[in-house]
UniProtKB/TrEMBL annotation:
Regions crossing the membrane: none
Name by which UniProt lists this protein: DNA mismatch repair protein MutS
Coiled coil: 523-557
InterPro entries reported in the protein's UniProt record: DNA_mismatch_repair_MutS_C (IPR000432), DNA_mismatch_repair_MutS_core (IPR007696), DNA_mismatch_repair_MutS_sf (IPR036187), MutS (IPR045076), MutS2 (IPR005747), P-loop_NTPase (IPR027417)
Start and end residues of each DNA mismatch repair protein MutS core domain: 12-316
Pfam families tied to this protein: MutS_V
Positions of the DNA mismatch repair proteins mutS family domain: 335-520
Keywords assigned: ATP-binding, Coiled coil, DNA-binding, Nucleotide-binding
One annotated GO biological process: mismatch repair
Organism: Flavobacterium rivuli WB 3.3-2 = DSM 21788
Length: 722
C-alpha cells in the first residue's frame, strides 16, 4: 500500500500534471475525477490503469478509433429519480437516454475489438448492457426532448382535439380581423399577441364597439388589445384541453419514472464508466503530448529510466522552441543511492525532480516520457525534501523544518522507499550540518532505501565513494566556458567550481586568492582535483562523441565500398562469361563453316550428320544443370550486361562516326589484294592471311579458324613479302 504525503505531491509539482490531464478531458465529471488522481493501492489496479491508457493511446494511430464517450452529467437527475413518487421532466429523460446509448455503443465496440482493447473491454464488461432504458424512454420522448403525441392514446386524442380548436381559433380571429378592419376600427398594426394569444389592435376611440375581452393596452393608451368574442369561446376550450394535456403528460412521466427507477444503480454505473473512460482519454491525450509510454514493470527492484524527460519542462520548452535535455539514471540493489554534486544551475535539482515525478506519475497510472527500453519497480513510499522549506505557520526556520522532515524520513524509511533530497544538509553550520547529514545518509543506506540526493558537502561525496552500494554523480560542465551541459555522469563527484565561476563573473583574482587562504588547503586541493577530473571527463566525453560520429561515418563508407566492390565483381564475372560465350560461338561457327565446306566438296551426308552430332554431344557434356531460379537470375544479369555493352558499343560507334566526319579523309586508291597478303575487315581489328580468291569471295585464315567474306569488305594491312 503506497503512501505519498501532500508535501511530496507539491514538491514534485504533481498537481500541474493533473491539471494538464484534466484539461484534456471532455466532460465535467471527467475533469473533476482527473484532479483527484492518486497513487493506486495495488499492482493489479495500477497495471489495469496503465494498460487502459496505453490501449487508448494506440487508438490514435489505428483504424479502429474509439467512439465518442462525451455525456452530460445526470447525477442530479438520478438522485431525484431515486426518490419514491418523484418524476423527471422529458429533458432529463433525454439526457439519461443519451448516456445509456453512449454506454451501449462503447460496450458493443470494445467487445467487437477486444483484440485491440482487452483491458478497456474488461472494464466495459463490468457494466450491464441493456436496451430497456432506451426502449422505455424512446417510446415517450422524442430526440428533441419533447413528449411524443402517441405516448398514450389519451394524449393523442387530447392533442387532436387541441389542433381542431386551434384551427377554429384562427378561423374566427381571421373573420373578426377582416370585419373590424373593414369598419376602420383597427390601428395600423391591426393585430398583436398578448399572453400567448392573438388579439386585435383596436384604436382606443372604438374599443366599446368591438365585442370581446380587453387583455391590455399600449403604453400611450392609444391602442386597446381585444380578443374577439368568437375567438374567446374557443380559447377557453383550448385552455381546458391544455390542462388535460398537462395532467396526462404528468401521468405519463410518472409512469416512465416508475419504469426507469429500478435502473438507478445501473445509471450510476453508466456515469462512472463514462467518467473513467473520459479520464483514460485525458491521460492518453497527455501521454501523446509528452511522448509518454509504458515502461516494463519488474520485480527485481531495478529502476532504469533511459532518456527521461521532465514532462512539465518538456511541454514548456517546446512552447518556447527550446531544447529539453533528457537524463538517464539507474538505481538497483547494488547501487541504491546516488549523490549528485556540482555547481548550481547545472541541472541537479531538475534531474532529482524528473525521477521522482516520473515514478509518481507511473504509480498513479500515467504514461511517462522515457525510452521504450526503460524499466522500474513499485515503491511503497516516495519521500521528498525539495525547495524552500521554511514554515511560517509553525514559526520554524528552514533548518528546523528540514530536521523535522528528516525525523519523519527516519520513522518511515525502509527497503521499499524512494527518498529524494535537494541540497542535503544545508541550513546550518557547514561542519555540523554536514556531519549530521552524513549520519542520516548512513542510516538511509543501512535501511536499504533507494534515493537520490544533491549536495555541495565534501564529506557526503567522500561517504558516497566509501559506501559499496552508493555512487557519486555530477552534471557535466564545459571546461572552458563553465556553461552547463545538462548531462548526468555517474561514478564521479562534481566540483562546485566556486572559485572558477567567481573568476568568470569578474571577481578580482586577488580577492579569490585571499578567499582560498581562508579555508583549509586540503579542501581547496580536493575541490581542484575534482574540478580537474570533471574537465578531463568533459574532454573525454566530447572526444568520445567525435570518435563515435567518425566511426559511424567510416562504417557507412565501408558499407558503400563493399556494395560497389560486389557490383564490380558481378559485372567482371558477367563480362567474362559473355566473352567466353562469344568465343565459343565463334568457334562453333568456324566448325560449322568447315563442315559445310567439307560437305560441299564430298556431298557425304552421313559424315556431315555424324560430325554434327559429335559436336553437339561434346558441347552438351560441358553444360551444367542449373535450377530455373538460377537460370532466371543469370538471364537477368546477362541482359543487364548486354544492355550496358550495347550502350557502350553504340557510344563508341557514335564517337568514331563523329571523328571520321571531322577528319574527312581523302579517298585513297584501293590496293589490289593478292593471295598471301595480310588483311583485315574494314573497321575491324583481327588480322588474317588471304588464302584464296574465288570470284568476289575471299578466304581469310585467322590461325585457329578461317572465314569467307566479300573481297570488297577487306583492306590491305601488309603486302606479301617476296
Amino acid at each position: 500500500m503506497i503512501s505519498i504525503t501532500e508535501k511530496t505531491l507539491k514538491d514534485l509539482e504533481f498537481y500541474t500534471v493533473l491539471e494538464a490531464v484534466a484539461s484534456a478531458c471532455t466532460t465535467e465529471p471527467g475533469r473533476e475525477k482527473a484532479l483527484l488522481i492518486t497513487p493506486l493501492k495495488s499492482k493489479e489496479l495500477l497495471m489495469d490503469a496503465l494498460l487502459q491508457t496505453s490501449e487508448y493511446v494506440s487508438s490514435f494511430d489505428n483504424n479502429n478509433a474509439l467512439p465518442n464517450h462525451g455525456f452530460e452529467s445526470i447525477t442530479n437527475e438520478v438522485k431525484f429519480l431515486a426518490i419514491e413518487d418523484s418524476y423527471l421532466d422529458a429533458g432529463a429523460f433525454r439526457k439519461i437516454a443519451l448516456v445509456s446509448d453512449t454506454v451501449n455503443t462503447l460496450v458493443k465496440f470494445l467487445d467487437k475489438f477486444n483484440d485491440y482493447y482487452p483491458t478497456l473491454n474488461a472494464r466495459a464488461q463490468q457494466v450491464e448492457y441493456t436496451k430497456d432504458i432506451l426502449k422505455f424512454i424512446d417510446k415517450v420522448v422524442d430526440k428533441y426532448g419533447d413528449i411524443k403525441d402517441d405516448a398514450s392514446p389519451e394524449l393523442q386524442n387530447i392533442r387532436r382535439e387541441m389542433n381542431l380548436v386551434k384551427v377554429k381559433i384562427n378561423q374566427s380571429f381571421t373573420m373578426a380581423l377582416s370585419q373590424y378592419n373593414g369598419l376602420g376600427y383597427l390601428d395600423d398594426i391591426k393585430e398583436s399577441v398578448v399572453e400567448n394569444r392573438r388579439v386585435l389592435a383596436v384604436s382606443a376611440m372604438y374599443r366599446k364597439k368591438v365585442k370581446g375581452s380587453i387583455l391590455g393596452s399600449s403604453k400611450t393608451g392609444s391602442i386597446a388589445y381585444i380578443e374577439p368574442e368568437a375567438t374567446l369561446r374557443f380559447s377557453r376550450e383550448l385552455n381546458n384541453f391544455e390542462y388535460e394535456e398537462k395532467e396526462e403528460i404528468k401521468r405519463i412521466l410518472m409512469q416512465l419514472s416508475y419504469a426507469i427507477r429500478p435502473f438507478v444503480p445501473l445509471l450510476y454505473d453508466y456515469q462512472e464508466f463514462l467518467t473513467d473512460i473520459d479520464v483514460v482519454s485525458g491521460k492518453a491525450k497527455y501521454a501523446k503530448r509528452i511522448n509518454g509510454l509504458l515502461p516494463h514493470i519488474n520485480d527485481e527492484r531495478r529502476l532504469y529510466f533511459r532518456e527521461a524527460f521532465h514532462p512539465i519542462l518538456y511541454v514548456n520548452n517546446r512552447a518556447k522552441n527550446q531544447v529539453t535535455y533528457p537524463q538517464t539514471i539507474e538505481l538497483k540493489p547494488d547501487n541504491r543511492i546516488i549523490v549528485i554534486s556540482g555547481p548550481n544551475a547545472g541541472g541537479k535539482s531538475i534531474t532529482l525532480k524528473t525521477i521522482g515525478l516520473l515514478q509518481l506519475m507511473l504509480q498513479c497510472g500515467l504514461l511517462i516520457p522515457v525510452h521504450e527500453r526503460s524499466e522500474t519497480f513499485l515503491f511503497d513510499r516516495i519521500m521528498t525534501d525539495i525547495g524552500d522549506n521554511q514554515s511560517i505557520e509553525n514559526h520554524l526556520s528552514t533548518y528546523s523544518y528540514r530536521l523535522k522532515n528528516m525525523n519523519y524520513f527516519l520513522k518511515k524509511c525502509n527497503d521499499k522507499t524512494l527518498f529524494l533530497i535537494d541540497e542535503f544538509g544545508t541550513g546550518s553550520d557547514p561542519e555540523l550540518g554536514g556531519a549530521l547529514a552524513e549520519i542520516f545518509l548512513e542510516e538511509f543506506y543501512h535501511r536499504e532505501a533507494f534515493g537520490i540526493i544533491t549536495t555541495h558537502y565534501t564529506n557526503l561525496k567522500i561517504l558516497a565513494n566509501e559506501l559499496p552500494y552508493a555512487t557519486n554523480a555530477n552534471m557535466l560542465f564545459d571546461e572552458k566556458s563553465l556553461e552547463p551541459m545538462y548531462k548526468l555522469i555517474l561514478g564521479q563527484a562534481g566540483s562546485s567550481f566556486t572559485f572558477e565561476v567567481a573568476q568568470k563573473n569578474g571577481i578580482p583574482y586577488g580577492l579569490i586568492n585571499r578567499a582560498k587562504k581562508k579555508i583549509e588547503g586540503s579542501k581547496v586541493r580536493f575541490d581542484k582535483t575534482i574540478a580537474t577530473l570533471q574537465k578531463e571527463r568533459s574532454k573525454l566525453e566530447k572526444t568520445s562523441q567525435t570518435l563515435k560520429e567518425e566511426e559511424i561515418r567510416a562504417r557507412e563508407e565501408g558499407r558503400k565500398m563493399e556494395g560497389i566492390n560486389t557490383r564490380i565483381q558481378q559485372k567482371l564475372e558477367s563480362y567474362q562469361e559473355l566473352y567466353d560465350a562469344n568465343q565459343r560461338l565463334i568457334y562453333l561457327g568456324q566448325k560449322l563453316e568447315d563442315m559445310s565446306e567439307k560437305y560441299y566438296n564430298n556431298k557425304n551426308k552421313k559424315d556431315l550428320i555424324g560430325e554434327f552430332l559429335k559436336m553437339v554431344e561434346i558441347e552438351n557434356s560441358k553444360r551444367k544443370k542449373v535450377t530455373p531460379k538460377e537460370k532466371k537470375v543469370k538471364e537477368v544479369i546477362q541482359k543487364q550486361v548486354i544492355a550496358e555493352v550495347e550502350v557502350k558499343v553504340e557510344e563508341i560507334r557514335q564517337e568514331k562516326k563523329e571523328k571520321k566526319l571531322k577528319e574527312k579523309p581523302v579517298d585513297k586508291p584501293k590496293a589490289i589484294l593478292k593471295i598471301g597478303d595480310r588483311v583485315r575487315m574494314v573497321d575491324g581489328k583481327a588480322v588474317g592471311t588471304l588464302d584464296a580468291i574465288e570470284k568476289k569471295k575471299a578466304t581469310v585464315n585467322y590461325g585457329i579458324f578461317t572465314s569467307k567474306v566479300d573481297l570488297e569488305s577487306l583492306e590491305l594491312v601488309e603486302a606479301m613479302k617476296k
